[in-house]
Amino acid sequence: MTLNPSRLSVARRRRGLSKRELGELTSLSDRSLVFYERGERVPSAETVNRLAGALEFPVEFFEKPDIEYVSSDAVSFRALTKMSAAQRDRALAGGDLGVELSSWLDGQFDLPESTLPDLRLQGDPEAAAMALRSRWGLGDKPISTMVGLLEANGVRVFSLAEQVRELDAFSFWHGDQPFIFLNSAKSGERSRFDAAHELGHLVMHHHGQPSGREAEREADAFASSFLMPRSSVITYAPHIPAIERLIEAKVFWKVSVAALAHRLHTVGIVSEWTYRNLAIEIQQKGFRVQEPETIPREMSVMLQEVFAQLREEGKGRPEIAQSLAWPVAELDALTFQLALTVVQGSNRKEPGPKPARDKAAKSGGSDHLRVVG
Amino acid sequence: MAYPRVVLDPDDVPNRLAAISPQITLPLLRQALLDGYTAKVSCTENDPPFFKGTSFYARTTRSLRDQLVPQDWWKNDDRNFSRVISPDDRIAIAVMGGDSSTGNWSREPKTRSKKGPATIDAVEANIHQGELFPVDEVVTRAARAKNAITWVLLYATFLGQGRRTIRAEFSLPASMDADGRITKWAARIILPAIHDDYHSGKGVRGPEPTPDISISVRRRSS
């Protein structure tokens, strides 16, 4: 048995553990772990078992070929500064696993290829959003499903069941393949905005420097324009900005009341003064924490199809997880808990139940492929 | 400066307002009216019926003050007559609901409700401006406020052609009738109407969304 150092690193970071913490869990010195992760020493089979048990990954996971790390430089995090190193590493390791899942899927299915253009030179984010809408033939219509639209255009969209408020979403290019990871703990409205925000990064900051406040502002402006095209807002949004009307109208674009209020300001329907008052009211009513009249969270459209087809071949969650040598819980976490809820046959329309609160809650023993302890 | 008694050309309105005080602008008055109207439409069926009108009046007054107090104006509620008064104490603004002639240049509007003694005194002060002692000789601000020229932001809402319209004017009261309503105006500046086309409630018409997306994935033969 040989332990692949890159996989030890991914599994450890995915669990949010430092080398020292993993050492404490496994009674190994952090020095040894440094050596193992650098590939400078080879742990015994017994040690690999112990590590696998502590990390809740099957032993086979550690024996597979190298896993490519997603470089944190290439990833656009919205609130990088607010996250701890462990939180960031945990999310990035989720990204590493997402890339692995994506290439496994590519081996099994012909999936949509990326149609994302490079819109770096569009001038401003609103122009970029309109250029993309035009290219995709969307006119100025509200987007029915953001995740489905992204997937149909070749973006791989996965979920991160992170109970980390600071983490909304992140995205990166892996070669020619764009990825977006959404924190499924956010509201449906927020998640759509995050998806559009990350789309903005992917098309505007492709291989550019994705960090920085200016880039974040641009991605926000892109998302706002992409989800709520100017002409559509001017025609259909209430021009008298009573909060009750905003709550009523936000469902047209499936956005948060805060996002609609902001858009009304940027298109010039409401003044700076009114916008400030609205923002205060939204804050006071707690709408930033608890979205009023909230919509269901979006699910992956593509993965529903994939899982439905595999199900027809008799392959369920344990079999898919086994192919990857992942714990089932990890598969569920990355795939919107879909594998849990796919019903017989394809073209399922209704999203399934809400994701479990954390991995401990849903990783009932029998779901685990093999947890060696 | 020779302005006609009634100013209704939108191009003249800003200049006419600026001649009263450079801080009184069309956007400022429009914002106050919008804030008032927004408060009114935020009322529900379960609010007492009088409250809709009251909230329009109250929020418009507050908005005027919220906007002008940072520019050194001050609020005066002497005898429950709520006004905002200019830094030099010469100009005061009060908010009042008007009748259906409000904003109509060809008719003379009346205030909707009877006014109290403080309003009567203010109109008197308007009429006798030239005859009063020079403002500078009055020592206290409160006393000077009594002699300020009081302009009225007069508003009314109308329902017609499937939409609500707010009509308003910035006008200078000249006399009152025996009922205590202001009936004559020394000057009237007709503000552009504000329209509200939004129809609230069930069946609100929204834009057509993009069609649902289905993605067909083909199994690789391997």
Describe the fold and architecture.
The complex is a heterodimer of chains A (373) and B (222). Chain A is mostly helical. Chain A is built from 18 helices and five strands. Chain A has helices spanning 5-14, 19-26, 30-38, 45-55, 85-108, 125-135, 146-152, 188-204, 213-227, 230-236, 243-253, 257-266, 272-284, 301-312, 317-324, 328-334, 338-341, 359-362, and strands at 76-77, 109-110, 156-160, 169-174, 177-183. The longest helix of chain A has 24 residues, at 85-108. Chain B has one domain. Chain B starts with 5 loop residues before the first strand and ends with a strand. Chain B is of the alpha/beta class and 222 residues long. Chain B has helices at 13-20, 26-41, 50-68, 117-127, 141-146; strands at residues 6-7, 74-76, 83-85, 91-97, 149-160, 163-176, 182-196, 218-219. The model of chain B has no long low-confidence stretch (mean pLDDT 90). A seven-stranded mixed sheet of chain B has the order 1-7-6-5-4-3-2. In chain B, strand 2 and strand 3 (83-85) form a beta hairpin. In chain B, helix 2 (26-41) runs antiparallel to helix 3 (50-68). Classes of the chains: A mainly alpha (373), B alpha/beta (222). Chains A and B meet through strand 2, helix 7, helix 10, helix 11 and helix 13 of A and helix 2 and strand 8 of B. Strand 2 (109-110) of chain A pairs antiparallel with strand 8 of chain B.
